[in-house]
Task: structure prediction
Amino acid sequence: MKSSWHVATAAEAIAAAQFARLGFNISVQYGANQPEYDLMVERDERALKVSVKGSQDKGWGLSQSQLAKLGHADYHGAADAWQARHKRGTVLCLVQFANVEIDELPRIYLASPGEVANRLRTARRGLGDTILWEDHRHGPRSAAAGAVERLPDNWRLTRERADEVLLNFGLAPQ
Result:
C-alpha cells in the first residue's frame, strides 16, 4: 500500500465488511480525527465502539504518544495511560496486511483495551513495549533478545470471538 492513510482506510472498510458478514449493524464515522472509535457495531441490542488499527509491518504502534508524554521510558506507565484513554464499550480491531495478496483477506484480530495493554506490559520479557506485535522475534541486540511476541490465536476475528467480545465488553441498552 502507498501510505498510512491507505492502510487505515482499507482496514476500516474491511473491518466494517467483516462485522456486517457476522450479522452486525454498522455505523461508520467519517472525517478526520474521530474520537476514540471508527465504527459502532450493534447486534442483539448490544453495541461495541470499534477502534480499527491497520498495519502492513506486523506491528501496531499504540502507546508511543503516551510514552512521550511521560518523558521517560516507562513502558508500563505508557500502557496504563493508553488503556485509560479508552472508554467502556470500546474494543480494538487490528487488521494486518503484511504478506497478504490483494485477492486475500488480511488477518483480523479483536481485543479489549485491557487485553491489549496487558500484552504491551508483558512484552519484551516483562520490560514492556509501545508496539503490539503480531509475530515478532527480538534481535540479538534487544534487551529481550530471542523473546517472541505473538498475538493469541483466540483474538482472531471469528463468529465466536465477536460473540465473546460483544458479551463481555459490549454496551447493553439502558
